[in-house]
Automatic annotation (TrEMBL):
It comes from Gracilinema caldarium (strain ATCC 51460 / DSM 7334 / H1) (Treponema caldarium). Pfam families: FtsA (PF14450), SHS2_FTSA (PF02491). One of its GO terms (cellular component) is cell division site. The gene is ftsA. This is Cell division protein FtsA. Residues 7-198 form the SHS2 domain. It is found in: Cell inner membrane.
Amino acid sequence: MASEGLVVGLDIGTTKVCAIIGERNEYGTLEITGIGTSPSTGLRKGVVVNIEATLRSVAAAIESAEMMSGREVHACYTGIGGSHIEGINSRGVVAVTGKNRETREIAQADIDRVIEAARAVVIPMDRQVLHVIPQTYIVDDQKGIRNPLDMIGVRLEAEVHIITGSVTSAQNLVKCVNRAGFRVQDLILQSLAAGRAVLTPEEKELGVVLIDLGGGTTDILVYSEGAPYYTATIPVGGSQVTSDISILKNISFESAEKIKIQAGCCWEALLDSEEDVLVPGVGGRPPVSIPRIQILRIIQPRIEEIFHLAKEKIDKLNLIRPLAGGIVLTGGGSQLVGVAELAAHIFNVPVRVGVPLSVGGLVEEYRNPTYATAVGLVLEGADREVMSHSERGETRNRDRSQGSLVSKLAEWLKKEFF
């Protein structure tokens, strides 16, 4: 079967690669029909360091999703992240040329020009622009306009959030996917995709912080008045927690990961003081039973460190109004017991763990914070395809109307002169 009508999200993380297939049913509604994951070994802190290992993980994850959905994948929307990602806010100003010179009505061409003016910031040669997201428009000093189309004005300003990334990191990511046999339709920032999957429009409007606790990195995305305002990455994640357990308890990384998932906790009030954890012995030694609170004492300081680093960055922001939407935690690390309680204690705002909003299809399988980015990539990809279809439709209509105008003129010339 061809991949027509399919929207595929590919989340290439430091610890796992996740592929999710979405397709539209007969009513045009998007449904998730395939999910595939594979361990990832070719990335460090969100950046590709081993192309061969990464392309094997990509191929395995997509193959697994194909098996579940019974469809063949040819192209995908791929997530990009890592410490090289940077976000900047910029402003552009243009004079309105308008559809009608007398009334100065703002046309789509004016909006495109003002966004182009806002994105004209000087960035180093080794960086590329990944996204330019409009935050708000100003028409003749009237602020807070979401969509200025058809409004009347002389001067149009736009405030935008520009997300940039390293050119080589993006190229290596695309190369891995291409060599695995798939085409990258677009690169989308991972935290932007996760936000699309787990945040509600009300939260974005009120102002909210999304903290995506990944394996190699922790991504922060701040929304203010409905639009992204700040993007940052902390180069510490869940793998660091596993590494701490492995070093302090002298066990393998794999055993430490199992203990973290099964017995990990970072809020003491949720622990049963009598509970024990079985730590496997190394080199044929018998396993040892230790109190679970010992594992908490290893995990909690590291998660606290991540939250304090995030708080430092957020506290520096010059926000006009407080982030009333609080904090939404997502990603694999947000499944740790007590993580929301610890975050609420440090940030002193309401905190919830964000799971992907229900899309339809295999709901039980993907409603898990681990899949937030991959589900978001499918939703973001589907949105882009709808937009490009409508743009193509507009172009066809324009061509048709121009064509009919030309034929009418030809008819008139024939009648009059021939």
